[in-house]
Amino acid sequence: MAAAERRAFAHKINRTVAAEVRKQVSRERSGSPHSSRRSSSSLGVPLTEVIEPLDFEDVLLSRPPDAEPGPLRDLAEFPADDLELLLQPRECRTTEPGIPEDGKLDAQVRAAVEMYTEDWIIAHRRYQHLSAAYSPITTETQRERQKGLTRQVFEQDASGDERSGPEDSDDPRHSSGSPDDTPRSSGASSIFDLRNLAADSLLPSLLERTAPEDVDRRNEASRRQNRPRALLALYPAPDEDEAVERCSRPEPPREHFGQRILVKCLSLKFEIEIEPIFGILALYDVREKKKISENFYFDLNSDSMKGLLRAHGTHPAISTLARSAIFSVTYPSPDIFLVIKLEKVLQQGDISECCEPYMVMKEVDAAKNKEKLEKLRLAAEQFCTRLGRYRMPFAWTAVHLANIVSSAGQPDRDSDSEGERRPAWTDRRRRGPQDRTSSGDDTCSFSGFRPATLTVTNFFKQEAERLSDEDLFKFLADMRRPSSLLRRLRPVTAQLKIDISPAPENPHFCLSPELLHVKPYPDPRGRPTKEILEFPAREVYAPHTSYRNLLYVYPHCLNFSSRQGSVRNLTVRVQYMAGEDPSQALPVIFGKSSCSEFTREAFTPVVYHSKSPEFYEEFKLRLPACVTENHHLLFTFYHVSCQPRPGTALETPVGFTWIPLLQHGRLRTGPFCLPVSVDQLPPSYSVLTPDVALPGMRWVDGHKGVFSVELTAVSSVHPQDPHLDKFFTLVHVLEEGAFPFRLKDTVLSESTVEQELRASLAALRLASPEPLVAFSHHVLDKLVRLVVRPPIIGGQIVNLGRGAFEAMAHVVSLVHRSLEAAQDARGHCPLLAAYVQYAFRLPGTEPSLPSGAPPVAVQPATLARGPGRPASLYLARSKSISSSNPDLAVAPGSVDDEVSRILASKGIDRSHSWVNSAYAPGGSKAVLRRAPPYCGADPRQAIDRSSSRTSSYLEGSSLAPPATQPRPTVQKLLHEELALQWVVSGSTVREAVLQHAWFFFQLMVKSMALHLLLGQRLDTPRKLRFPGRFLDDIAALVGSVGLEVITRVYKDAELAERLNASLAFFLSDLLSLVDRGFIFSLVRAHYKQVATRLQSAPNPALLLTLRMDFTRILCSHEHYVTLNLPCCPLSPPASPSPSVSSTTSQSSTFSSQAPDPKVTSMFELSGPFRQQHFLAGLLLTELALALEPEAEGASLLHKKAISAVHSLLCGHDADPRYAEAAVKARVAELYLPLLSLSRDTLPRLHDFAEGPGQRSRLASMLDSDTEGEGDIGGTINPSVAMAIAGGPLAPGSRASISQGPVAASRSGCPLSAESSRTLLVCVLWVLKNAEPALLQRWAADLALPQLGRLLDLLYLCLAAFEYKGKKAFERINSLTFKKSLDMKARLEEAILGTIGARQEMVRRSRERSPFGNQENVRWRKSVTHWRQTSDRVDKTKDEMEHEALVDGNLATEASLVVLDTLEIIVQTVMLSEARESILGAVLKVVLYSLGSAQSALFLQHGLATQRALVSKFPELLFEEDTELCADLCLRLLRHCGSRVSTIRTHASASLYLLMRQNFEIGNNFARVKMQVTMSLSSLVGTTQSFSEEHLRRSLKTILTYAEEDVGLRDSTFAEQVQDLMFNLHMILTDTVKMKEHQEDPEMLIDLMYRTWRGSTRSWATTRRPPSAWCTLPPWWPSTSPCWRTAATCLWAAFPSRTSHPTCWRSLPSPTTSCHPTRRASVPGSTSRSWGWWGCWSRQQPTSPWVGSTRQ
User: Which of 240, 660, 870, 1695 is 20 to 30 A from residue 787's alpha carbon, by CA?
Assistant: First the structure.
């Protein structure tokens, strides 16, 4: 371009209108002082202010989805099946449900049965799994998506043995002889060598004359082939620490199990076998002094021994034949023992006498003791016949389980997986926090040991005076001591073989504690394994999930010492009586071993001749479904006559006592000390307790308590907590209307039940945590029912909404506190989350009143009946009434006036406080408000509007006859009540709700979803789905919670973080249910709150971090793309004022007309863009503000904002809905402003290029073509601009990044390498997926400097993703770009042990969390974000291979995306006046890409682009400037020497076309000759990995092209090419020899001279010597003594010294300087100088744009 033209072009660029300057400066001055980019909006709305979004529903109505073509139709609106109702069958472990048979069940049992049998009801969002919250992109998913990648071929990875490959089989043609061996004058040998070489394959279409457009289309089609669809699948997964949107669906509630061990009883053998022996197994915890399992009874007797009891036994049930049991241990401990007790049939004599034969006689002496054995067998047979139903204690022993586990050892680590060594995470989570063992040396696990078979040989005989559990614990503690007293005792010798192993996950033939068949149960005839019920050592917080109603009876001791008569062999008979008649004993007592499954009575073992026996017996009973006041346990005490005497009965009753099981509606449990009656019990005794001394009855020891017994219930029906019992009882009474009712000592009537119910609601907070958690589903269901269906008492509605809401808040808080250790990463209690997800449902219909009930007159809802209620009751009542619909006709002043008064006192303005005024009543976007029924509206809507003002309606009619009238009920909507009660709640309740706001938010969302699904309202327009009053309540609620977040962020940072996330998830969920424009207005209102607080915040970074998390959660919605209205065309700004980008539109390089405002708005954070693409605008605005140089906490905000964008783009890549190119292009339009943001942030991005000053080379180069060198982008200095605008300049004003000087921008916080690389890969994603035509239109509107910065950005992308090579991965194994340099150092510290885990946790919590080290931040894992790094140092070879594979594909794809973008820019500037400058810069980027480490695939396409570019614009290379030509020749020549044949093929083709293009311009290609010759000298001298034999093949290939080029056959071109190739071949041969003879100075100078002689032809026409000879090669010897000879030779060699003044101007004559001075230098240094030989010392500066610079 001529100088005059360039000046004219520069003047055109800088022509600025004064009006435009005023607008630009006024915008800059109106911006916030916090941000220089905050004024970039075409509507004048700064970035710090959220623009009002479009009305989403109206936009969709105006543009139906059918208007979109093909696959884009799915982006226009949510799918019709987005929300669905799922009924998931409840998991039942047993083959039969085990619920009581249908009969007369009371309300409590009926409710329990319904709860444990009904299916889970799930309001399911069908596409929610596609959200980033539920399908996160992790390292594992990335590795899965990376399967099947093609391995890219890189030059640096090509091994040396490739030289002998099939395509490179030529032998090296260089000798080490003297230069005289080859006659250089003729070059015959060199020509012969070159002609005999084999050429590489030729490109078939290279020599064809094709139109440039066809070449471009062919190149583009070739580039598009076999490209990976998902660019981000090649990039590391997003940082999991930043994934605040991550959440998982809770698992359905399941029955709690601890660690389970399987115990199999194999055999029991004594020295003598004379009678049956029965065994009992149980677990005992010595430390807790507690029995932690029920008994397991087993019978290992032989059939002959069992036959001795045939007279007393019925046919045994198969369930009683079990010999193996599964024990569950929630709290494993080294103090747990497996206790084995043995019993035998009662016989005459004490325990010692009965044990004596077993201790004395041996099996080997059987022959000697034959008579004694026969006598013993005969006696045993007699006792079995007579006393077979009674047992006596015999012996016991214990197995220390910790010894079994430790001796069995852990599984081999080499053979078993980690999952086998410990339970899976899901199992641990299902089992809950109680699985965690105690810390320190007491840790113990029963879940992963090897099976062990034990043979227990020593048993200890039982002692009659020491049978209690207290004595047993003393014995067990003594067993652990080395000098145990038990070891000194003479044992009972036996052999008991048992097998102990971890229980399998799903054992076959297993029975539940209720004797139900557990799945799988293949054959009912198989011998079963029993599950043994656990009695945990400590509290277990788990909800009941199945029906269980068991009662355990433990007789402890009996004191009959004062009882007269023969009462010595005492036993206790236990019976469960449904009445007082003996026939009413129910068969509910579980059998033991080898007997019937259930019995009507059971006996304790007999202690011989003891009046005060102790018992260890356990009776297990199955409680009936309905326990009534008549049900009781009857204890009958018998004296058993062991010796048969005439006239003496076998058993004689000597006492009676009982326990009524129900008292005041509660099941009686716990310890009892009962008096025993001597006489038979009188009639009606069961309604009293034994504590009542009935007249005329005799009592043992004067009515004192002589019998100690304990009852323990394991029931999912009876809570066994007084507060819960009272609450359930009152609720069930109200449901059944059974008045009057006795509660303890008071009789409740309809007039007093309300007060008791309110007191009961308030007392729920006093309930014990364990039963409260166990019955949490029941409690929450009842509370919901009280809110939704307030009871009607005496014809009046009792509003309990406020009390129930407060009780719900306290119950949730208690459950949360009890399960604090089991919270997930977001602080959610999994039990409560599972309740909402699965168990919660809207209450069903009410049961009808019994016939004959009086008619019920329904009155308006009241809290008390009577005319004299105080006004305060109106106040309390009005707080509990919903505010959904105002259309119900109510008594004047009774509802609406009170609600308004309450809301006014609370300071709530429903119309304007929290919602945009457009949504207020009467506003332009108002939702449904008061409207007369049936006034032209849809009938369904009219019915909805005519529903109750209090969101209630009445069922049934008070005018119906009593006999047929159903019980009237009032129905409310839970979500409406929750919203209102939350808004009007007091401070105490509000605080409790805020602590667990997520639960109430989720409860409201599910209630709304069920309301829509069950009410068939999904077809209703979104604006009509919910009443306006309810939406006002939602708005007020969102505003108040948002205000809490803002005010608490500096006081309680952890709570503020949780609240912020809960609020964001709530709004995200509402986007699937309600008017989306309304939700956007709530988001905007919340942003306004935060922006107001930011102006006075002491540490804005805290609020900015929360707001960024808020935005990220909102954007994680599964229909995020649809919510941004991607299918609607962007409207240009209505205001005549142009956008910021339009202030530079006068310097648009490529179009004479003004830029298209629509396109400009799409690529900037303009008003229309942020208004239509609301969520994307919020996200990119957060990114823009975080990238500000003056942003607070910049490094943290950089990472969070960029990570949010990266995560979303990863989700789009993985989403199957966006797989098609057209759809993904539309998605990419949502991120087009990212290009401008990244371009403007370029100066502060990490410099991945080597050497300083490389980032803005092209922008500066293009800007230097203009005259305003101090202003980038054609803008004017702010001081001058303000003077032009006519106003003073503010002291703090400054230009924006996109318009101000680069130096000013660099003053901000630079981005880290990790953040910069992630931002660049996001830019590449947009460039890859955006519509090329759209990018072309945008590029056409860019100013020249802006385009320069865009090219700089592309260059930086090439540098950032340059392939490092396999050796780099091996050299720095784990140091990847994913972690910054400081993180690498910390990783090394952790590996070397110089920093502990605790210090690392503290450091990371302070660094990562913006909340600093505040004292009131509670220590939690979710705050510290401690986790082990995934970057291991000891990566395997396969892992490193995989990393190299992925990195190679990423580098290739990134470079191809850059190449695609460069092609778009080239097509854009073809008709531009400044195309030479721009195309020169484009070519520099192409040359840099060709000079960096690239794959063969990219070089194939890159060289094709280079050929097309040179073909279309030859003036770039062949006019005045030769830098580009020199650089290109050097690049091509280097690739001609590649070991990869594909690279050589394309490089040879490019070099040949370059020669042909130069020849066609001037009938010679002297410039190319010269540059190729110089490049060859430089290449051979500076490149270490240069392969001369492969270069020779490329020279042969070029020669072949010249010979086959038909078009130039008539010219001298082929001859010139041949001469050049031969010369290059000779120069190459001699240059290689120069390397070999670098230690021989004379030979070296001779070779240099002869090489010069061979190269004179290349530059003779230009009269310019090669610059390469002005630079010493790096292998030049630094100690050569022949400097004078060398100087003389060189002086003589170049007679035309004046023709190259750069090299020769400073060279003196050798005659005047015979002794050149020489400075010492390091060999190979680039700063050597030898006096007048100094021109040799000046090395070529490295540059990404210039290959060889002449100096």
Answer: 870
What was the pLDDT predicted at 1652? 65
CA 1360 to chain centre: 28
Tell me the C-alpha distance between 121 and 534, whole Å. 30
Burial of 426 (0-12, 13-18, 19+ CB in 10 A): exposed
From CA 1286, how far away is CA 505, in angstroms rounded?
A: 83
- What is the structure's pLDDT at 1027? 94
Closest residue by Cα to residue 863 from 949, 794, 808: 794
Q: Are 1037 and 981 in contact (CB under 8 A)?
A: no
Distances in whole angstroms, Cα of residue 1578 to Cα of each of 1535, 1558, 1671: 14, 22, 9
In the numeric block, which tokens belong to residue 946?
């005519």
User: Quick check: 1285 and 26 in contact, CB under 8 A?
Assistant: yes
The contacts of residue 1206 (CB under 8 Å, 6+ apart) are 232, 238, 1318, 1321, 1322
In the numeric block, which tokens belong to residue 1725? 């240094």
Token output for 1680? 């050569």
| Alpha-carbon distances, residue 1521 vs 1124, 1457, 1574, 1746 (angstroms) | 49, 29, 16, 12
Per-residue burial over 802-820, b if 16 or more Cβ lie within 10 Å, else e, is: bbbbbbbbbbbbbbbebbe
Quote the longest CA-to-CA distance of the chain.
155
Beta-bridged to residue 534, according to DSSP, are 293
Q: Where are the beta strands (DSSP E) in 102-223?
A: 120-125
Q: What is the mean pLDDT of residues 626-635?
A: 92
Cα 540 to Cα 821: distance, rounded to the nearest angstrom = 12
Which tokens belong to 1457?
């995306």
Q: Are β-strands 277-285 and 259-270 bridged in parallel, bridged antiparallel, or unpaired?
A: unpaired
Q: Which of 499, 496, 403 is nearest to 446 (CA)?
A: 403
Under the banding of pLDDT at 50, 70 and 90, the label for residue 901 is very low
CB 847 within 8 A of CB 1079: no
Tokens read off for 1105: 């971090």
The number of residues in the chain equals: 1751
* Helix ranges restricted to H, 1605-1700: 1613-1636, 1641-1659, 1683-1693
Nearest to 1268 by CA among 114, 329, 140, 12: 12
For CA atoms 1000, 1004, 1006, 1010, the dihedral sign is positive
Q: Are 344 and 276 in contact (CB under 8 A)?
A: yes
Label residue 1743 by pLDDT band (50, 70, 90).
Answer: very low
How large is the C-alpha radius of gyration of the chain? 46
Q: What is the pLDDT of residues 1358-1384, one digit of tens each?
A: 999 999 887 777 665 544 444 445 555
Contact assessment for residue 82 and residue 127, using Cβ atoms and an 8 Å cutoff: yes
Q: How far is CA 1321 from CA 926, 1244, 1362, 1384, in A?
A: 43, 16, 12, 22
Residue 314 burial (CB < 10 Å; 0-12/13-18/19+)? exposed
* CB atoms inside a 10 Å sphere around CB 217: 12
Is 70 exceeded by the pLDDT of residue 1345?
yes
**Angle 1679-1684-1690 from CA coordinates, rounded to 5°:** 105
- Comparing 90-94, 808-812, 1661-1665, the range with the smallest average pLDDT is 1661-1665
Q: Read off the pTM.
A: 0.80
709, 614 Cβ separation under 8 angstroms: no
Task: Tell me the C-alpha distance between 707 and 699, whole Å.
Answer: 12
For helices 896-905 and 871-879, the axis angle rounded to 10 degrees is 80
- Given this model, what pLDDT does residue 1086 score? 96
Collapse the DSSP code of 94 into the 3-class scheme (helix H, G, I; strand E, B; otherwise coil) and give the result. Answer: strand
pLDDT of residue 613 exceeding 80, the answer is yes
